[in-house]
Amino acid sequence: MDIHENQPVRRFGAPVQDASIAMIMLHGRGASAGDIAALAEVLPSDGCAFAAPQASGNTWYPHSFLMPRRRNEPYLSSALATIDGLVQEFERAGLAAERILLLGFSQGACLTAEYAARTPRRYAGVLALAGGLVGDRIDPAEYTGLLEGTPVFLGCSDQDPYIPQSRVEETAGVLQQLQAEVTMVLYPGLPHTVNDDEIEHVRAIMHRAARAKEAQ
Fold it and tell me: Candidates 3.30.70.1350, 3.50.50.60, 3.40.50.1820, 3.40.1190.10; correct CATH number of 9-215?
């Protein structure tokens, strides 16, 4: 059962055939593709093809990401398949994974981290804003493969009401184990939102990806 199949995808920015990089943007629980797409207004958009998929019912999975994974099936697998479908679509259009950035907020950040850890290779960037790996417990031995130096940014409040600091730290550890280049910032007292410093980290990774393409 593919819960999120045939949901709309908001596409904007550079035409994919002209793009030097691409970004898949994943919204949070109760939000929409339009909400996360609005974040692109403060990001460098020249030469970037954006895709923001919509979750069925505005929710990627029904329960907390801290529940056992089986409790969030088949929604979780469908959400991960949505990301994979967009990655493959960009690849077919000529944008290799090393030119694709994955970004998400909240539920979307959890999916971003989970997809990168379960489908490791070199990406242009992995940007998880207020999220972490999915499941009631994290076993690093379940994650294999290499992220090959992929730049990863994990930003979250140290008192986020939904995302425990310990889970962000566990996520950083797993992604480092997969040989990602991880930057983790825990913001004192930040509410469950995105702040200007996080935006600057995202912008820096996007600029780095664009420069890498220009140098080829």
Answer: 3.40.50.1820
Q: State how far the Cα of 114 lies from the Cα of 206, in Å rounded to an integer.
A: 20
Q: In angstroms, how far is the first alpha carbon of the chain from the final one?
A: 42
Going by C-beta distance under 8 Å and a sequence separation of 6 or more, which residues neighbour residue 43?
23, 199, 202, 203, 206
Query: What tokens does 211 get?
Result: 């420069």
Q: Where are the domains of the chain?
A: 9-215
Burial of 64 (0-12, 13-18, 19+ CB in 10 A): middle
pTM exceeds 0.90 for this model: yes
**At 215, is the pLDDT very low, low, confident or very high (cuts 50, 70, 90)?**
low
Return mean pLDDT, the chain: 96
What are the φ and ψ backbone dihedral angles of 164, each rounded to 5 degrees? -65, 140
- How big, in percent rounded to 5, are the helix, strand and coil portions of the chain? 40, 20, 40
